[in-house]
Fold this protein.
Amino acid sequence: MTVTAHHPKPISREEFREISDLLLRRTGIRLAPGKETLVMGRLDKRLRQLGITSYREYIALLSQPEEPELNQAIDLLTTNETFFFREPRHFDYLREEVLREHRGNRPFRLWSAASSSGEEAYTSAMVLAESLGDRPWEVVGTDVSARVVASAQRGVYPIAAAEHIPLPLLRKYCRKGREEYTGLMAIAPELRARTTFVRANLMDNLEGLGRFDVIFLRNVMIYFGPETKIALLERLETMLQPGGHLIVSHSETLKGITSRLTMVEPSIYRSPDDVQR
């Protein structure tokens, strides 16, 4: 029997630009030229599911007012790669510098601003639980993708995802699946009880989430243009507690962006202690 290989539908330069523009307007994420293969690879199956024969037809669907398919396209096109204890220096700093200085009974609040499937938020929760114990604290995770937010809320991961979790924390905060859950692990209920995930777009006004002692914004700004970065940073500054910290990826920097934040070490920035609101 001969099996015919399937080839993704080709996308024209103009179609790619229009899809990129839609994504940019909705999320602030910019797909640079050269990502055509990525777009075809991620959208081809969806087009076949819908019975759509061309990207032109799909763009027409996405452009309709209040069309829910646009959220589906965003889910497919946004990058969600992450893992537990990624860039571990940030969690060392959180434990050794930030949490050590935390005083008083005010709840310590941490925001994973592009939480993807939840590994960054739950890693933070492990560090907070170890350092603060029964003192009040909470972690909030947000992501533009409804699909990965739902995955994060479940808190269930393949056993292979435990590779970077220190063994004492793995034993304490993760539960090994049995029977139909063999090969999986679940985050312990005591961490999930203090970790909330919400679908949210960083381009929107998110002040309703409150203020935070630490905001993780890692591997996000690399997808944004200069104007979007400036506007986003201005909003996030108002959501930091005085003396709070903004942590970006090691591959990112705020260089060239006017900000009240001060770099305490590469990729870690601190808000003034006397911020005027």
About this structure: The longest helix spans residues 13-27. The chain has ten helices and ten strands. Strands lie at 108-112, 137-143, 156-158, 174-176, 184-187, 195-199, 212-217, 240-248, 262-265, 268-270. The chain has two domains: 13-77, 89-270.
